[in-house]
């Protein structure tokens, strides 16, 4: 028992220090079944924690695979994989989880020799699925794997515009948003991963929440404008009080008019007026944003927010 | 039928108890509700009145607008009356209402020392609503500043007219 634990800790350290060769030697030396199980679980954990060290994983798992053949005493439910962690050892030749890819065809075997000596796979490569190891094949953000359908962990560097495949600008064609949003939810919704692992359930919850956020932010002009500025690194300071007399006096008048208006006709009139002002502001925001004039952009956003609030009040009253 | 009547009695009893429990658990503090239900000092003074200072402030985060007006006695520099008009959430309305109550009868310099933290404590405002009390503090300062600016313009105007009169008479 002690022997196993010490071997395990050494193994872990070697993984973390990125030392391939020693890892392989240790694993080769072990003839113990339980150690193999330990190795398998530790491999899974370590791979998940250190997904950039893909080269390590590939070579290590291939070696465990090879050693499997040398150890006929291993119980048949020992699970090993080069792509998925759930292929039973007996069926790895068919590799049913991975759409019929035969183990002989795994490209990892071809690059095994290269990875034996190298320490790390390049981190600038395409993101890979945590479940099946498949690379992101289709264009677009990698939120769910195209090969095995597993939901991926949230990548904060993918911004909302990328999720919907839009350019990062203020004017967007509105019609597409809802369709794309529903498409994404068909792949990411938590209800679909009801029977899968806890990890994947968590990914699905976070990923679909992010898509909902993105949809809500981009579908309305004001949040879209604020988000655009945020992406440029400009923070709209919300706590500051403003004392611009013209804007405030104008808003006071509008709000008082809304309070006093008693019939829907008058309210509708005010509504059209405020909507026009909002449109004007919105267009001016677009222009100043294109010119990267962020001070004026913030001012435009403030005005838009006031008009938006007035419109909310009118809608409430109607 | 008797059972239905009995149930109705029980439901009445429960309803009587439930609202107070709900208010205690979460929601606005009773002072805020009080200011909202029984508004005091709501109104407007004449903006062009030389004894009136108007503070108009806004919070861009929530689109709130707050107007606070003070009527100052020129001779003593004391605030004799105050009124407010606020478009915003309950906390903003309550904060400005409290502000108008506190400035009445005080000296102008004194009211500048009213801090938003005091207002927030008085109303037990949650952290997310602290900016409402900040708005009220800013409104007081803006009103005082407006009054002083008016006074300065008036004295400058008076000085000019007396000068022109002297020139005319000379």
Model description:
The complex is a heterodimer of chains A (318) and B (170). Chain A is mainly α and 318 residues long. Chain A has helices spanning 2-16, 20-29, 33-49, 54-70, 107-117, 160-163, 175-188, 198-219, 221-231, 245-260, 264-290, 294-317. In chain A, helix 1 (2-16) runs parallel beside helix 3 (33-49), helix 2 (20-29) packs parallel to helix 4 (54-70) and helix 10 runs parallel beside helix 12. The longest helix of chain A has 27 residues, at 264-290. The N and C termini of chain A lie far apart (75 Å). Chain B is built from 6 helices and 3 strands. In chain B, strands 1-2-3 form a 3-stranded antiparallel beta sheet. In chain B, a hairpin with a 4-residue loop joins strand 1 and strand 2 (64-73). The termini of chain B are far apart.
Summarize the structure.
Chain A has 318 residues and is mainly alpha-helical. Chain A is built from 12 helices and no strands.
Question: Layout of SSEs?
Answer:
The complex is a heterodimer of chains A (318) and B (170).
Chain A lengths: L1 H15 L3 H10 L3 H17 L4 H17 L36 H11 L42 H4 L11 H14 L9 H22 L1 H11 L13 H16 L3 H27 L3 H24 L1
Chain B lengths: L1 H24 L4 H8 L14 E8 L4 E10 L4 E10 L2 H14 L4 H4 L4 H8 L6 H40 L1
Antiparallel strand pairs in B: 1-2, 2-3
Helix pairs in contact in B: 2-3, 3-6, 5-6
Distance between the termini of chain B: 101 Å
Helix content of chain A: 55-70%
Strand content of chain B: 15-25%
Rounded to the nearest angstrom, the radius of gyration of chain A is 28 Å
Which regions of chain B have little confidence, pLDDT < 50, spanning 5+ residues? 12-24
Structural class of chain B: alpha+beta
Order of helices and strands of chain A: HHHHHHHHHHHH
- Radius of gyration of chain B, whole Å: 23 Å
**Overall pLDDT of chain B, averaged?**
82
Category from helices, strands and their pairing of chain A: mainly alpha
Note the main sheet of chain A: none
């Amino acid at each position: 028992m002690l022997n196993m634990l010490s071997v395990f800790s050494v193994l872990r350290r070697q993984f973390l220090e990125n030392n391939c060769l020693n890892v392989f030697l240790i694993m080769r030396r072990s003839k113990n079944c339980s150690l193999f199980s330990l190795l398998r679980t530790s491999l899974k954990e370590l791979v998940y924690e250190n997904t950039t060290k893909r080269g390590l994983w590939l070579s290590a798992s291939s070696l465990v695979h090879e050693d499997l053949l040398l150890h006929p005493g291993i119980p048949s439910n020992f699970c090993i994989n080069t792509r998925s962690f759930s292929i039973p050892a007996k069926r790895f030749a068919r590799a049913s989880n991975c759409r019929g890819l035969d183990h002989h065809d795994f490209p990892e075997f071809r690059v095994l020799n290269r990875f034996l000596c190298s320490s790390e796979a390049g981190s600038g490569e395409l993101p890979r699925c945590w479940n099946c190891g498949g690379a992101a094949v289709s264009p677009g953000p990698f939120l769910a794997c195209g090969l095995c359908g597993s939901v991926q962990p949230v990548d904060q560097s993918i911004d909302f515009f990328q999720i919907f495949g839009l350019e990062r600008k203020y004017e967007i064609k509105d019609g597409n948003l809802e369709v794309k949003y529903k498409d994404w939810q068909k792949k990411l919704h938590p209800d679909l991963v009801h029977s899968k692992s806890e990890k994947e359930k968590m990914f699905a919850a976070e990923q679909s929440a992010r898509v909902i956020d993105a949809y809500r932010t981009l579908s309305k002009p004001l949040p879209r404008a604020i988000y655009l500025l945020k992406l440029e690194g400009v923070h709209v300071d919300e706590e500051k009080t403003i004392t611009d007399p013209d804007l405030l006096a104008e808003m006071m008048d509008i709000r008082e008019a809304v309070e006093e208006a008693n019939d829907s006709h008058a309210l509708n009139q005010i509504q059209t007026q405020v909507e026009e002002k909002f449109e004007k502001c919105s267009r001016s925001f677009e222009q100043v944003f294109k010119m990267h004039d962020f001070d004026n952009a913030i001012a435009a956003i403030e005005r838009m927010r006031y008009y938006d609030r007035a419109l909310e009040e009118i809608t409430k009253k109607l | 039928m008797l059972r239905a009547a009995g149930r109705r009695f029980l439901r009445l009893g429960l309803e009587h108890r439930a609202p107070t429990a709900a208010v205690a658990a979460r929601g606005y503090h009773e002072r805020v509700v009080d200011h909202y239900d029984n508004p005091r000092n709501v109104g407007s003074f004449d903006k062009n009145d030389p004894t009136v200072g108007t503070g108009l402030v806004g919070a861009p985060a929530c689109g709130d607008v707050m107007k606070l007006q003070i009527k100052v006695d020129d001779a003593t520099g004391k605030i004799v009356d105050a009124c407010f008009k606020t478009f915003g959430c309950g906390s903003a309305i309550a904060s400005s209402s409290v502000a108008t109550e506190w400035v009445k009868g005080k000296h102008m310099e004194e009211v500048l020392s009213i801090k938003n933290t005091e207002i927030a404590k008085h109303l037990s405002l949650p952290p997310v609503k602290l900016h409402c009390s900040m708005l009220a503090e800013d409104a007081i300062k803006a009103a005082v500043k407006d009054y002083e600016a008016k006074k300065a313009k008036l004295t400058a105007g008076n000085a000019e007219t007396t000068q022109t009169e002297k020139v005319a008479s000379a």
